[in-house]
Design brief:
- Helix content is 21%, strand content 28%.
- It has eight helices and 13 strands.
- An eight-stranded mixed beta sheet has the order 6-5-4-3-2-1-13-12. The chain has a five-stranded mixed beta sheet with strand order 7-8-9-10-11, covered by helices on one side.
- Strand 7 and strand 8 form a beta hairpin.
- The chain is globular and about 50 Å long.
Length: 272
């Protein structure tokens, strides 16, 4: 990683939804009670830029998909990246952390992007288990079909476990929330920022060890959280997938409060 650039790394909000507090966790612990107040779940995707590369991490969903699920978004991801001077055709790589509807819904918008995904994630999303409503509820069949078309167009690169994606960017298999969930470590000016993604929707999923309610396997989820904690440079280098506090503790872009810079240390620690 010595020859890798210090990347720009942004979390970009494109929508938000209130969810019941009980939906945000799974364990009813009388010694650590959950507030009854609704939680704001922020829809994020991420942009990495440097070394001549423009990389998106996930690509959100569109208005049509949202309407089917009773969700609204503030803007399309392609509209959000325009604030950073990025056009759809500028994106050379799309890293899909997993294939849930809010992460893989606008693949067709980025005509030049190579798609990178864990092989286990596509295998799961096209497996017999998708015949069960409780398993498939977070997936959208049209998004999976879009990815398959891109495979036939030779635009998809598969990963099997941990490995380098680009100089200074590594992908890490973190199953549990979905079988092929992938987190990322990105070299920046403050060190390696670990995008844990949906192995922790909220900071307290990680630090209170209380999983989010959408799970495939609880033991894998817990092991994946241990892996993130073990590998991260510090608690302050870990970024969860949907926590609104990300917008409060990282500096906002001067032209857009929904875009924050992850390469600057957070203004306060949210750790154990």
């Amino acid at each position: 990683m010595t020859d890798a650039p210090d990347y720009e790394f942004y979390a970009i909000k494109y929508g938000v939804v209130d969810v019941p507090a009980k939906y945000a966790t799974t364990i009813d612990d009388p010694n650590n009670p959950v507030s009854e107040e609704p939680r704001k779940l922020v829809y994020f995707f991420h942009l990495i830029r440097g070394g001549g590369r423009t990389i998106l991490v996930d690509c959100g969903f569109d208005h049509e998909c949202g309407a089917k699920r009773g969700r609204t978004i503030d803007r399309l991801p392609v509209e959000a990246i325009a604030k950073l001077g990025v056009k759809p055709e500028d994106v050379d790589t799309m890293i899909l952390t997993h294939l849930h509807y809010d992460h893989a819904g606008t693949l067709g918008t980025f005509p030049n992007a190579e798609i990178i995904i864990q092989e286990k994630e596509l295998a799961f999303a096209t497996s017999r288990f998708m015949s069960h409503p409780a398993v498939r509820r977070a997936f959208d069949a049209e998004h999976i079909c879009d990815l398959i078309h891109l495979i036939f167009a030779e635009r998809v690169r598969f990963m099997d476990g941990d490995g380098e994606i680009a100089p200074g960017i590594t992908g890490h298999l973190l199953p549990g929330h979905s079988h092929g969930l992938m987190g990322l470590q990105v070299k920046t000016k403050r060190g390696r920022v670990f995008l844990a993604g949906d192995v922790a929707h909220f900071y307290d999923n990680l630090w209170k060890r209380n999983p989010f309610s959408i799970l495939q396997l609880v033991p894998e989820y817990c092991d994946s959280q241990d892996k993130v904690i073990r590998m991260a440079e510090s608690p302050d280098h870990i970024v969860p997938g949907h926590d609104e506090q990300i917008l409060e503790i990282y500096p906002a872009h001067p032209d857009d409060e929904g875009i924050v810079d992850l390469t600057v240390p957070p203004s306060r620690s949210i750790g154990p």
